[in-house]
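Design request, tokens follow.
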């Protein structure tokens, strides 16, 4: 009489499928049901463990709470390009060191953004910024520069905390914070590392729910070295 354990072992091997079929036919119904039950229990345990892992991972990603606004902003760095002057400030949030505070200010309507790159190039960089739409509304977005198209908005916007966005006297500004870690794979870098900074501006406006328009004719200013935005000091990079 076939051993049910042997039957179960044999049926896990694709190479022995013919032999397994023969053994299944020779086995009494009791052994067949016993083997089915064993396999089903293993499958249920595996599916249950996988579901718990997915649920816990999803919960961990969405349990990020925005901290309170810092009482003071880091020192601002002024940069000048052909069609716009803008200010940039970065530093850790004083209430939650896992969040990076970013302040951006533009002298003309459009957008201002800072990108984090591993190779001084626009491609494959994490880009956050402040932008204005045609109606004058100002907001923030988290985006990603791939190869093509150049820029795409992060569909989740998780980990972004908007403290203030305004357009006053011809100038627009945004003060926000972003969680340092990777919340959306393929759209985020971990900000608590070293990167080249890409700083750009443009007079082009677009809807707040879409990506940054291409910044022609201005190309981004690129930092001479790699810095950690959490420990970056504006005096290290006086002017571009």
């Amino acid at each position: 009489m076939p051993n049910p354990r042997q039957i179960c072992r044999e049926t896990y091997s694709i190479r022995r499928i013919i032999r397994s079929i023969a053994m299944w036919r020779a086995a009494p119904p009791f052994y067949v049901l016993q083997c089915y039950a064993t396999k089903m229990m293993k499958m249920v345990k595996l599916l249950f463990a996988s579901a718990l892992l997915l649920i816990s991972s999803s919960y961990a990603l969405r349990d990020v709470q925005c901290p309170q606004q810092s009482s003071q902003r880091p020192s601002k760095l002024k940069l000048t390009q052909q069609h716009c002057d803008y200010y940039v400030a970065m530093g850790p949030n004083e209430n939650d060191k896992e969040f990076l505070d970013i302040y951006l200010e533009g002298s003309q309507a459009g957008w201002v953004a800072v990108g984090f790159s591993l190779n001084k190039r626009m491609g494959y960089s994490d880009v956050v910024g402040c932008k204005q739409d045609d109606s004058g509304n100002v907001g923030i977005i988290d985006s990603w520069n791939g190869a093509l198209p150049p820029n795409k908005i992060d569909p989740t916007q998780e980990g972004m905390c908007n403290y203030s966005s305004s357009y006053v006297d011809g100038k627009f500004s945004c003060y926000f914070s972003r969680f340092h870690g990777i919340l959306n794979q393929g759209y985020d870098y971990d900000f608590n590392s070293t990167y080249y900074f890409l700083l750009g501006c443009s007079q082009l406006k677009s809807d707040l729910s879409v990506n940054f328009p291409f910044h022609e004719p201005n190309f981004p200013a690129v930092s001479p070295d790699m810095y950690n935005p959490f420990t970056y000091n504006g005096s290290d990079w006086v002017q571009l």
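Comment from the thread starter after seeing the answer: thanks! The helical segments are 4-11, 17-26, 29-62.
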